[in-house]
Design brief:
Blueprint: E1 2-3, E2 13-14, E3 24-25, E4 27-31, E5 34-38, E6 47-49, E7 62-63
Antiparallel strand pairs: 1-2, 3-7, 4-5, 5-6
Length: about 60
């Protein structure tokens, strides 16, 4: 599934288009009890903490 916002709510998620449609995406990952927004689905990519104060919480999207 893919969601249009960090907090999944009814109507904001749909079947994944990853691999079939190129979109600007960010990935939400949880590691060591912290939620991160990452450029790719791995911790080696550019990641920021979801709950950090602005502007340090601005994600690094990538067209994928």
């Amino acid at each position: 599934m893919e969601c249009t916002e960090v907090y999944a709510r009814e109507g904001t998620c749909r079947p994944s288009s990853y691999g079939t449609t190129k979109l600007s995406r960010i990935w939400v990952l949880k590691t060591s009890g912290q939620w991160l927004q990452c450029q790719y689905p791995d911790l080696g990519s550019k990641c920021v903490k979801v709950f950090a104060p602005p502007p340090t919480n601005l994600p690094y999207p990538a067209v994928q």
